[in-house]
Amino acid sequence: MNDNYIARRVEVNGIVQGVGFRPFIYQLANKYTIKGAVANTSSGVSIHIEGTKKDIEYFCRDLTDKRPPLAHIVEIFLYDEALNHYMDFTIEDSRGQSVMTTLISPDVSVCDDCLKELFDPNDHRFQYPFINCTNCGPRYTIINDVPYDRPKTSMKHFIMCSVCQDEYDDPDNRRFHAQPNACQKCGPHVALYDNTRRKIKTLAPIKMAVTLLKSGHIVAIKGLGGIHLAANAENNDAVKTLRKRKHREEKPLAIMSYDVASVRKYAIVEKEEEKLLHSHQRPIVLLKKKEPHPIAEEVSPRNRYFGTMLAYTPLHYLLLKNDFTALVMTSGNLSEEPIAIDNEDAFKRLSPIADYFLMHDRDIYLRSDDSIVRSTAGSTRFIRRSRGYIPMPIFIDKKVPPILACGAELKNTVCLTKGNQAFISQHIGDLENLASYDFFQLTIQHMKRILDINPEIIAFDLHPDYLSTQYAQEQHNVQKIQVQHHHAHIVSAMAENLLDGPVIGLAFDGTGFGTDRTIWGGEILVTQLDKFSRAAHFSYIPMPGSTAAIREPWRMAVGYLYNAFGEDFFDLDLPLLKEIDHKTLKIMVEMISKNLNSPKTSSLGRLFDGIAAIVGIRKQVVFEGQAAMELEMLAGEKESAIYDYEWVREDGFKIRTSPIISGVVKDMIQGIHPSVISGKFHQTLIRLFAHLCEIIRTESGLKRVVLSGGVFQNSILLTGLIRALEEKNFQVYTHAKVPTNDGGICLGQARIAAELAR
Predict the structure, then answer these.
(1) How many whole angstroms separate alpha carbon 730 and alpha carbon 2?
(2) pTM > 0.85: yes or no
(3) What crossing angle do the helices spanning 626-634 and 674-700 adopt, rounded to 10°?
(4) In this predicted structure, what is the pLDDT of residue 98?
């Protein structure tokens, strides 16, 4: 040995377990004749290397440049070490440590190598529905603890056969330490049952499930993060039956196809959308419908889009290989309940819906719904961030204390922080029943354990009736910080864009508890991380019937019409008013005038509802945001005309809705088509908000505008407002890493709490 022969210790943190990282290191060491050892630790991967300075330099370069496809390196630390005079390079057993900082890989789709083997009759895993390797397959949903080793996953019950064990032990094999490694002989198996739990005697359960789907039956299929309810997407009667049984009357259903060629039969696929479909996360991608198309009308009624994903498990591929253009693949639950993951629970809850069950015996430890994305306004936008992306952290601008942020009520997610990393949970759903609340608590406990985070601070919404708020209030020995809903929305976008304040924040949604105890949702805020002021908002409008006005937009229409016309609105020649009993209208007016069960709202989401009802699109809704979504779908996107708008100086700028309502009513009476009215309404909002931002900039000097809130799922509004603001030389920041809806609000809560605690 000479002075040029040295030793180093390399500590690597990130997603470096269960992704083929150790065999990659082993092969890299042999390439550069480096001696030493590599081991998984609770902090990531620890490597001891001995070799020439030049070879170690090359080794460290390739470590980052040529890492495995699923590896994600966050930090690398290099330390001088004493020579131990290793004779070769070895892979050691995992080492436990007191602090766990390693990241866990999300669940990912089956890789091309495994797919090739799946359909190769000469391969011993031919048509095995659980084929996987270190580059693909289940991760987050089957892990119970770290380090990520087989005994700490739901594969612990399956003892590998000699062939699988040899692969698992061979550093040169693609399945080296692939924790879910298995084959037909030693691994999980699928079985087919009817909805009385009777096992169907067949040697080909997948083939029989295909026959059942083609004959119009509904089949519950156990996948990666939960159970799907499947039906032939070309069979309108089957889809209609699924809707009826699932109590999902009109909300679009997700569909799955074998490949992009199949998708192109019913949808327009742009270049960026094709990349999203093929990505190893395999999200549901919103795609414009192709006309004509073979998909059943009941899949996505009154909508320009299909929510489409490609197959992502071997089981999906084996099913879809059988000449299906697409299968409906919707969450295995009744509306508003968490997706089923346990076989027994699935039989109990889904037997009234599914005719048959294609199940397997590998446990799912934590449910994870399919992610939903949309490519719009130049970026990929999350509608739901879940399977395929969780638990990848969002990196924030500074290290913060360990915080638990509890999210909101609808589209709930929770956030845990560690250092400069914010870990947002998978989609939990609407916290409106005990099952969802149990899942909420289970998710918190699971994340705290696998991320080794013991929160010192708990952040939560101002609304006293949210179950997430009540949970937070019941916790002990933590600092509790309440956060206003729309402040959290804006800061969530600031956090993912690494912004400090102040900024102009446009927070538009359906409901949020305001500091004045009214319902906000049409707010322009001057926002900093630790505080905000209300620069502008819509004038308050009563919601006759309170939450009933959310389910029945005609009530909001009455509120806006009464505000604009007083009792003269009774005489307006509007189809909506002719469809509602005069006595009922009188009762609504009495509720409003006497302030009976008619809370005040400044919500832009409610204004969308009111307009949708006035133009005759939607009197009642069966899912959140339906009226606003259908108003967007109807809009003529080339419309440039606008309605009058105005504001007054009162509590900042108060935007009056009456000029807009009056313009809409005038167009309706004149017989203008609703598509023109919707287009004008959208353009009015774009012009209005851009104009207000100009005035606020003049008074405050602020040039950065942040957009957040569920209303910005509206592509026309988002795209148009970004363009209008940028034309006025504003810097515009939006969401691309977390949803703009309440699914991203926990990130803002956590960042605000960190600033307030500091």
Answers:
(1) 61
(2) yes
(3) 100
(4) 47
